[in-house]
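Q: Hi! First time doing this. I have a protein sequence and I read that you can turn it into a structure. Is that right? Here it is:
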Amino acid sequence: MIARDQAIATLSSDDFDVLVIGGGITGAGVALDAAARGYSVGLVEKTDFAAGTSSRSSKLVHGGLRYLQKFDVGLVREALLERQLLVKLAPHLVVPLALVVPAFEHQAPNRIVGLGLNMYDVLSMDRRGRRGRRARKAEASEGEPWADWSPDRHRTIPGEEVVELVPALAHRDPTSGYLFYDCQTDDVRLVLTVLGEAERFGAICANGAEVIELVEEEGHAAGAICSDAHSGERFVVRAANVVNATGVWADRLRPEELHAEAEVPVIRPSRGTHITLAHETLPLAAGVIVPAGAGRTIFALPWLGRTLIGTTDTDYDGDIDAVSPAAEDVDYLLSAVNEFFATELTRVDITGAHAGVRPLIAIGDPKKSVDISRKAELYETSSGLVTITGGKLTTWRRMAKLAVDRLVEREAREAPCRTQEIPLGQAVASEELARVEGVPDESYPALAARYGYAAHAVLEVAGECSELAGPVVPGRPDLLAELVFAARREQAGALADVLLRRTRLGVVAARDLCDPAGTALTAAARALGGELGWDEAAQRREVGRFLEAAAREGILPA
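A: Yes, that's right. Below is the predicted 3D structure, encoded as structure tokens:
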């Protein structure tokens, strides 16, 4: 990415075809789609890229098995096709994940679940009705765009294989279980990668740029007045079209216009809470669907060397700019895990936590998130403002297409969508990365998975200084060099940017970061400050600001 100051200067001086408001996965997708079709694109994000909902997901790229219970077959089918495509476009970022539904006490796996998995299998078939290894081989020879990965059918596995995949269940002696596949990602890294590709097609993106109000010319939205979070100064971005892709914040921009003209239902935020545990505390080699009472389920997933537990799904009426895990939600997750795995985990075992709100569109009882649609919704009002909201992480590309298709239609352009064929970054094998003195062996696979080919550039930074080659948190693979790289190449300007998002240490190692006796924050501030020109006093202030942000976001539940 170009430097933030350069991006702000370009945004304030050039005229654009499209201004995208919102730097989460939907906004990033709209920027990429529009830029790839030949539009000149500017994007502004009020805080940091992926700072909202897009950094607080369950990290799954999946069809959504539970939506079959509601017979939302179309949504599941769409998501499964996107899952398959994203594995092809970003194989280092979107990776297959085995999931298990265990059975106990000599009982067979639940037949209803089996029927649901049968339908899941059918819906994930390719366009010719094929799947698995034969489909991959045949399609590869025919040059089909879906050729790289397709999951095998679900199957029943014996108890011994359940234990191999889910060691945490060994003492419960499972009888058997269902094995099926979905995919997993690092949601923030996916956003940053999509933004990087958008910039490659000419988009200009800046964080820390909040839209204060729209600019109108003859009643038509023609850009926005923005406030620079760093300087406090205001600047104008002029654009022929404006797309509101702010997710759960969507109805804060021209609310009277959205609700009165487009009859947009009030967005009902639903809070999803996740916690992480040390792998040794709850060892998993595959994901598990965990019963959580009242017919609900949660996931227990291996992720970044930890075990990720979530999510809750509760109506939220608090401040959407300051969402943290509720005590009752954390207790709910721990209770479900303890009952299922026969453990006695407490808050002391939590290594990190996060909560976010999802932009769901109410279609029934406004107090029940189970009555809320996950489908994307597009609205266009009299000013020409296009608003896209709803949806889910997996379907970001289709949401973006929906928005840009509307722009193309109203301008009668001939500009088909191209994002189904645009690679997202470039994968690299960890063995191909040059070894740098001081970089731990376990960091190379982590760098390859996070950055793909760009890991070479991170390692170049690590080679500049021996301190930067070391880990931020001892025992974790994340390097201090990544913080410097984030400041140079990804517009990171604060410890929260690099610890909560560019790396995920705030989610997986919050206890280490917030330990008063620890040195991780000091080392991180020194590395980042060296790049951004902070003196020692500024570094100490930044450590204090991070601890305030950590408390506000509840990354370490009390």
